[in-house]
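#struct-pred

JT: dropping the chains for the assembly here, can someone run the whole complex?
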Amino acid sequence: MSAAPAITGVYCAAATPVDPDLAVDLGLFTDHCRHLLENGCDGVALLGTTGEANSFGISERRAILEGVVAGGIAPERLMPGTGCCAIPDTVELTRHALSLGITRVVMLPPFYYKGPSEEGLFAAYSEVIERVADARLRIVLYHIPQMSGVPITLGLMRRLVERYPSTVVGVKDSAGDLANMKAIVDALPGFSVLAGADPLMLPLLQHGGAGCITATSNLIADSLATVFRHFRDPAQAGAVEAAQARINQWRTLSNAYGAQIATIKAMIAARSGAPGWLGVRPPLTPLPEAQLTELSAQLAPLMRKAA
Amino acid sequence: MSAAPAITGVYCAAATPVDPDLAVDLGLFTDHCRHLLENGCDGVALLGTTGEANSFGISERRAILEGVVAGGIAPERLMPGTGCCAIPDTVELTRHALSLGITRVVMLPPFYYKGPSEEGLFAAYSEVIERVADARLRIVLYHIPQMSGVPITLGLMRRLVERYPSTVVGVKDSAGDLANMKAIVDALPGFSVLAGADPLMLPLLQHGGAGCITATSNLIADSLATVFRHFRDPAQAGAVEAAQARINQWRTLSNAYGAQIATIKAMIAARSGAPGWLGVRPPLTPLPEAQLTELSAQLAPLMRKAA
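RK: done, full complex below.
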């Protein structure tokens, strides 16, 4: 493993719009991906937790990826989630991504069984890598124990990096514990540690982190890009601080109703003017009308500041 | 909903044998299903947690069901798990079961997102039922929060039964809390409450429960059948008590190594003489050699007693 992280930058954990029949609105989604790339994102980490990946069937996930690539989004800017509970499904989705020229994926561990051994998780990732058998593949491990129930420990990362140094290149750490992210940076030089929470990108970058994959970038990618590009430049300290403050404001609002994904989508709807963004797939539920109205009122000043 | 539970009896949460390449050994599995039905099981609840369902891909799960039916197991004796994280996958597997003449399924809630609202889970189950749109369908809800992270509350059950009285007919309660099972029996007359843990079947039956779906029935279906058939008969009290004691002994041994599914499979291997039962899919891991030897020594007296 080289000392320079393989994957750096601001990646958007893109939300996925669904129509009233709960089908993916591919046109709206492709527009959104384009908007994100034009507004400062280095790439789009689609089909993650914010993207409701696990609420879409295997064939739908393939169709979403194909649709976005057919819609003109460069495969090298895409970093989809492909980790499922079953190894064959993970292999299928990862091979499918590679077949489209997409070489970087974010991979959940198998997440049905709770309390699996490190040995068992190592075996699961190994099996996927050996079956995919493609030297182009780059995997970002996905640590989000509050959803998956299955943490990716430092011990597991170390073993995977030792065995597959050119394939297992990073981690998305969504657990929100900066100390853990720093420990990974310290332990694995050259490994890409990507913050899953917006407020933690700056302190993580300052400690040698590689960037972020976050939900708020659906809304204010440009501010995240400002932080990422200029955090080392003392002359830009004011701009970076202002950008980070803005990120935190939007982020706080996105968490105001406890239903973060529905709220993010409602905020995209408000910003883009496309009501098609309001839907979510069960088991998520859309924001009730009263909260939409309140959210709208709280968004107005933030959007004026942005304009 | 009628007062007589729709689904009663002893159902085996059947384990699924895999070969050294981790592929399903369909011949061995079909033999196992036949053995279970010949030894007292009323049905085979295949592709559940013990069956490693979520470690098999969608197409594998279809192939397993087709293979067992082609192998001569009557569809009306099968009750597969079909609940996935994504509604379309759950719909596909449920429709596929119905296409084979299998009308009863055990259905996990979507289990990726933690803390979903009752409204969201109701919407998810509703969406599946409406999309499957088959009056023959009978659903057993699957409450196993220690794995799924998503409990099925009494409130949710009540709503589903009210809306779909002929479709949502029962629950498999694997949380191990007898008080909860009794509360469901009391609240929903005619609803089939099936214990997911062997030691709880008898007290649940005595309170009006419908039976069980358990792992130990892979090993001692006949004892569970004895308890189920005779628990009301004072003349059989001794036989019932002896059977329950035997169930508890085997169950205790199956839990001795913390890796219950691998242990159950090793016990099936020992009982049947088929080493093909030793494999498990990652993230599960097989029992190490030393534990296999120890297990074997502990099994010997239990097997002698059974003979």
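JT: nice. Chain B has twelve helices and seven strands. Residues 237-254 of chain B form the longest helix (18 residues).
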